[in-house]
Specification:
The protein is mainly alpha-helical. The protein has three domains: about 240 residues, MFS general substrate transporter like domains (Growth Hormone, Chain: A, Up-down Bundle), CATH 1.20.1250; about 240 residues, Growth Hormone, Chain: A (Up-down Bundle), CATH 1.20.1250.20; about 140 residues, no CATH class. The chain is built from 24 helices and three strands. It has a three-stranded antiparallel beta sheet. Helix 3 runs antiparallel to helix 7, helix 13 runs antiparallel to helix 23 and helix 20 runs parallel beside helix 23. The relative contact order is 0.10.
Length: about 650
């Protein structure tokens, strides 16, 4: 935006009378508390509404016999089309709108009733279908389920259209009314409130998704109308300066569009960023069908809701601590490491193609896996916006975020449909009904791997553009070719924590070898001789091989540490100490899940499944060794010093 509010602080002699300013708005402490409360209450209702729709509609559409590709079209393609067309227009008009109620709240308040009506109509789609077929005989030539699906598609499009007005401007409102010195703290609170809203819904409400869909949608609409209405009434926008750049012909009409594309899409570095994040978004398109995978694994809606809720509570805690390290380690570096290690977790879902456990066992194993991965997930969730802040030029930050959104929407526009067709194809070839949803991970793994590869290329190019100490965003519009921006110091490799990380990985590999012996004793005790045989002749030798590969890599890292202390040239670079430690803790805890998996399957006389779980652990160990080696190569020539600040 061209006219960000000017902010100053006024401090009187009495600290209790301290005031805070945002443009023409002035707040005392009590006023600031009231502002935060109003905005957070609005976000609570907004999050609740946005959680209800994608969690319940797939169940309703599947019950009506909707095909997977059509489900993807309704839930993914339509919102993407509206995002490309409606959001840019709404944002553009809102920036230039002036009224005594402000420039954001009028758009939110005027579209809110229509959004709530369409949300309620989604819940009443079956009743409306019965009414229409009773009074319009022409509709009787169609099956009731077909008419119901058509109504859901119509109401969903209507809902998404009006939701674009709110989602485009809701977060822009924060920038207009909150003093900038409190933005960081407010965003932290916002994430906590959003997580609380989603957790309460998943724990208490989601279990009734199939039996009380109508009541849930109606309740969400009422709460949203009251909550957002209160926020619009309580929050006051200030006065905005007149638009001052409309006389610039290069920023208007077709010339403005040309300027937009020239600045955003002429440098390879930004194309890499846009492409990587768009492809990562495509990998998430299969998430529409995740609930059906959970149901295929014998989970009830109550178990799914509680598992999501408990994981959400853990996420609230982890998010607070994770946010502390993102700036210290640099958000791009955090993203790169987390994405690579996430690929391992995604790939390991192959075991569920061959294994089916009773729902209660799968529930506890899956919940344990989610809790163990909480810190990793929190880091992944929290890095998105900070990474954009550190990579995009400040003078055109919103413009580049918009460009990224356009590319992402174009790429994901048909992703939901294609993901549905992918599931339908698997269903056709394996001919086992909902078993096809066990292959969801294949879609995620492929696109996530492509996106992660691009993120790695971005990381390498970021180093070439200056890295921690000297990165400045490329700027094709500047004579210098780059835009200067403040350098935020980051923490270099710390030898103490790197030693701890190496010991953690050493322990993982050692437990994977030594832990086989008591497990084989357990198999012998349970007369599971088939599992005993394969652990002895195959899994034990492979575990030893993985451990030896790790010891070789660990030895090379420690030799480089000694070279760094002596001021000698390194053969490779150092993997980052903090991220390696965090992932070491995660995978060390995951070895406990591996032991539990073996004990459960052996106790249930599922010997083949026990061998598959054991093989999965070995594959994980080899991938861990490969990931650490990859980072030593990528950091070669860059992270080469110990115990120093990088910038």
């Amino acid at each position: 935006m061209g006219e960000l509010p000017h902010v100053t602080d006024s401090t009187k002699s009495d600290s209790s009378n301290k005031t805070y300013h945002c443009g023409t708005l002035t707040y005392a402490k009590i006023g600031l508390v009231g502002l935060f409360a109003s905005l957070l209450w609005g976000d609570f209702c907004f999050t609740l509404m946005e959680t209800v729709v994608p969690s319940i509609l797939p169940l309703k559409l599947k019950a009506l016999g909707c095909s997977n590709w059509m489900m993807g079209f309704i839930l993914s393609t339509v919102p993407s089309v509206l995002s490309i067309t409606v959001c840019p227009y709404v944002s553009f008009r809102s920036d230039r709108y002036r009224s005594k109620w402000g420039r954001r709240i009028p758009f939110i308040a005027c579209t809110m009733p229509f959004l709530c009506i369409s949300l309620a109509m989604l819940g009443w789609s079956s009743e409306i279908q019965i009414f229409l077929q009773a009074y319009f005989p022409v509709l009787n030539s169609y099956a009731p389920s077909t008419v119901a699906i058509g109504l859901i598609a119509f109401f969903m499009a209507m809902f998404q259209f009006y939701n674009m007005f709110v989602s485009s401007l809701f977060f822009s409102l924060f920038n207009d009314v909150i003093p900038p010195q409190f933005i960081g703290r407010f965003i932290g609170l916002l994430r906590v409130v959003s997580a609380v809203a989603a957790t309460l819904y998943n724990y208490f409400i989601f279990q009734f998704a199939e039996s009380h869909m109508r009541e849930i949608f109606l309740g969400a609409a009422v709460i949203y109308f009251i909550g957002l209405g209160m926020m619009c009434f309580m929050v006051k926008e200030g006065e905005y300066p007149p638009i001052g750049c409309e006389t610039d012909k290069d920023n208007r009409g077709l010339k403005g569009i040309r300027t937009f594309f020239k600045e955003c899409f002429t440098h390879k570095f930004y194309w890499l960023i846009f492409s990587a994040l768009a492809i990562i978004s495509i990998s998430y398109a299969i998430g529409t069908f995740e609930i059906f995978f959970r149901r295929e694994m014998n989970l009830t809606l109550d178990q799914i809701g509680k598992m999501t809720a408990i994981s959400g509570v853990a996420m609230i805690i982890a998010m607070y601590f994770g946010a502390i390290f993102i700036d210290r380690w640099h958000p791009l570096r955090v993203t790169v490491y987390i994405f690579v290690f996430s690929l391992i977790a995604i790939a390991m879902n192959w075991v569920w193609i061959f294994i089916t456990l009773p729902g209660i066992y799968y529930f506890w194993l899956c919940l344990g896996g989610n809790l163990i991965a909480t810190f990793q997930t929190a880091l992944s969730t929290a890095t998105g916006f900070p990474m954009q802040v550190r990579l995009f030029p400040q003078s055109r930050f919103a413009q580049f975020c918009s460009a990224q959104g356009v590319i992402r929407s174009f790429c994901t526009m048909g992703a939901g449909v294609i993901a549905g067709l992918f599931i339908d194809a698997i269903r056709y070839f394996c001919d086992r009904g909902d078993f096809a949803y066990r292959f969801n991970f294949v879609w995620t793994l492929f696109f996530f791997a492509v996106g992660t590869t691009l993120i790695l290329i971005i990381y390498v190019n970021w180093y070439k553009l200056g890295g921690d100490a000297n990165y400045h965003p490329p700027a094709p519009w500047s004579p210098k070719g780059m835009e200067e921006m403040p350098i935020v110091p980051t923490v270099g490799v710390q030898s103490r924590w790197l030693n701890i990380a190496l010991r953690l990985f050493d322990l993982i590999m050692l437990i994977s070898v030594l832990g086989i012996f008591p497990l084989m004793w357990w198999m012998n005790w349970q007369h599971a001789m088939k599992a005993f045989y394969w652990f002895a002749v195959l899994l034990l030798p492979l575990s030893v091989l993985a451990w030896l590969c790790w010891k070789y890599l660990e030895r090379s890292i420690r030799k480089d540490m000694e070279r760094a202390r002596n001021g000698e040239a390194l053969h490779n670079g150092f993997p980052h100490h903090g991220l390696l430690t965090a992932m070491g803790v995660k995978f060390l805890l995951a070895t406990g899940l591996w032991v539990a998996q073996i004990i459960i399957t052996v106790n249930m006389k599922m010997e083949t499944e026990a061998v598959i779980f054991g093989l999965g652990n070995i594959v994980t160990n080899f991938l861990l060794v490969g990931s650490v080696w990859l980072f030593t190569r990528i950091e070669r020539g860059h992270l080469t010093t110990l115990d120093k600040q990088l910038a």
